[in-house]
Write a structure and sequence with these properties.
Blueprint (H helix, E strand, L loop, with lengths): L5 H19 L6 H8 L3 H5 L5 H23 L6 H18 L1 H9 L10 H7 L1 H16 L7 H20 L9 H16 L9
Helix pairs in contact: 1-2, 1-6, 4-5, 4-6, 5-6, 5-8, 5-9, 5-10, 8-9, 9-10
Amino acid sequence: MAKVSESDLQRKILDTARHLLTTDGYTKLSMRKIAKSIGYSATSIYLHFSNKDELVHALIDEGVDILFTALQEADNPALHPVTRVQRLCRTYIEFGLKRPQYYEIMYVLHPEYIKRYPAEKYRKARRILGMFASAAEAGMDRGDFDQREPMLCANLMWTQLHGVVTLLMSERVDKRISSEKLVDATCEHIVRSLVNNPMPMDV
């Protein structure tokens, strides 16, 4: 076997674990199974990760970093808040559909199967919602969006985005509706839910 660097081995471990986790599930994932898949001893895996929860947390961290970086690149505080929200929404959906394994581990994996995600890591992951909250708050400051709690708006946006991503990933959307049309309609619906245009009470 050709000798590989420690960084390459760690990358191989993470890639293999990500694949096994999303195909076989958390309960069937083991350090020995990962080791067998890459042709190394279990001891080699433990030199990089003390247990499978630490390994899963590392995968979540990677996914969070990839998504956060993509959102940062898409966002621009100088843009109109509506444009900011649309760009953030599309970037989020694109991440989920292009990197389904990361998305599943980050947002679909049952939390009871792993140890509580460390508080410092959760705060880092929460920056993603913070970007949506920032765009919503900018719209409120301009008077374009309804005055509501920005983080509440961010969570409401996330619930819609998460629903669309998971439905498209699992191919449970009506075949008569194209994914492009659904994504467009979702982004438009999210913006409309924020815009300062209250519905008459008697409607």
